[in-house]
Amino acid sequence: MDADPGQYEHAIDRLRALCERTVDETERQILTEAVAVLSGLHSKNKEQVGLADAILSATGRGVIAYDAGGRVIRAGPAMDEMAVTSLVGMEMQAVAAALTVRHPDGRQVRQEELPAYRALKGETVAGERLDITSREGRTIHALVSAAPVIIGGVPSGAVVAWQDVTEQEQIQRRLNEMSTLLEGMFESLGDIVGLQLPDHTILRYNRAGYEALGMTPEEVIGRKCYELIGRDRPCDVCATRAAVRSKRQERLEKYVPEMGRYLECRSTPVLDENGNLLLIVEHLHDITDRVLAMDALRESEATARALLNAPTDAISLISADGRLIDVNETMLRRYGKGREEVVGRHINEIFPPRIARERLERLAEVLESGAPVRFEERGVMGWYDVVIYPIRDETGRVARLAVIGRDITDRKQMEERLVESEERLRSIFREAGIGIALLDLDWRITQTNPAFRRMLGYEESDLVGRSVAEVTHPDDIEANRALFYEMVAGRRKRFQLEKRYIGKDGRVVWARLTATILGDTKDLPRFVVSMVEDINDRKMAETLRTEAFNRIEQNMEQFAILGDHVRHPLQVVLARADLMDDEETAEKIREQVRRINKYIKELDRGWIESRKIREFLRRHEMV
Questions:
Q1: Distances (CA, A) of 456 to 498, 501, 505, 507, 532
Q2: CA distance 164 to 143
Q3: Which pLDDT band, with edges at 50, 70 and 90, does 554 fall under?
Q4: How far is Cα 260 from Cα 266, in angstroms, rounded to an integer?
Q5: pTM to 2 decimals?
Q6: Mean of the per-residue pLDDT values of the chain
Q7: Long-range contacts made by residues 117-122, C-beta under 8 angstroms, separation at least 24?
């Protein structure tokens, strides 16, 4: 990025002007970082250079600045940390070697696709989604942007910035998991909730809406809301019309004679990123009973408004000095007290000391700030989600406080059970007698249990981050790898095989491997669980058994050969006996020959029986 001072000043002024005109936050961030880098390079003042480096450190992003030749001239600490070395002075290819960059689908990013390479060609890259893996194997999801630095009409360098959005993606997955639950909650609400266009055309209602109208979705969707109650024009008092004008939530109460009910109507506008109105969320709450009761209590209108703006759970109205002015029936049922036992009493007289002290501290916080607060509180009978709202008098002073408590004991107990369940799983992982190893989708070990480490004689630090191939017998690597990547590709959920591992001391360890792939809520693969059973003893027993049967076969064959070798000399002896003049001696010799032949025949029968047994064992895979 060699240039005279005038060119640097011109480039800096141009980038600043672009920064002031742009409305895109990502582009503005890139341009701001580019100004900081150029200012540091242009200035010979150490304080200015230090300021540029400080800006790079404070942006909350990883930043790299390249010169025209693709050499790093500035790098934020986040990038050095990922590369485990200083990047300054490195060529673009060396940076790519230090940091593995992939597309979200796992494909390697080619050099010509790199944001830095494209920026040096004059292209501006904004918010491209990439995965970056450090030399230590840590992978983050990032939004990467890049901008060229133009001096004299040509690209003279580039600034690349990335933002770690790993946590945001995890949050997004959780949000997706909640969408089904939210839809169920929408349909189960007792109040009428509907979506409509600004011109009152109905897009949908929840179940309560269709039931209140006595119509089906097909009879409702596409019609105007006022047509559904028999009118030919919008209501004179309409929260939706007011929300369309103000582009903020509007609330009103009115009597609907066609339904014979008093309704609290809330219309909340939904705007796009440019502030344009997209649709209206209409919430209709039946307040007929409350309105009838309010006729006798008009002076408490401010109190009723605060109660209506809060969840209708256990509700109490408290004075500024901590005395209960009123409570609802849920509150009374929760504490098992009558209204006369509660109203007019101080908090210290109602709650245990700890709860009373904490509640008074929260009340004091709202009185001082004038803003509502929300917190979770462990009460006498469970956990509660508590909201305290300020209620102002005519002068604007906070005179009363509305306290709404929602029972969340079930949720808390579920969370506690989840924690206990996770601890049990961790305990099983630690104490299991069978070896367990967790692998990432690149066949690298991410975690092992003690049984696995004992089996191979390694420490945890020796294994984590290593490829499984490094501890697998060379003859078994390809078969194991092929099955693993079939599973990662989605062609199977699990596989099982017998394989040989190589222990730290070089010994061969036979094991039965059962591998299972686990996915996320979208059934996308996340990691692999390998269950490894030591079968060395069985393999040794099989080997010894095979060797024993082989030795028996050899002995049997030798017996057969020996029988043949004995028969031939006996025939010679028998012939000699026939030639002898002493018949008595000759007969004795013949008798002994016959006895020996008998023994040989018995050996032959035994050999035949043994051969039959051997064939039976072979047929039944016992040898």
A1: 16, 8, 8, 9, 11
A2: 7
A3: low
A4: 19
A5: 0.32
A6: 79
A7: 117/70, 117/92, 118/146, 119/66, 119/146, 119/147, 119/148, 119/155, 119/158, 119/159, 119/160, 120/66, 120/68, 120/70, 120/148, 120/155, 120/157, 120/158, 121/148, 121/155, 122/148, 122/150, 122/155
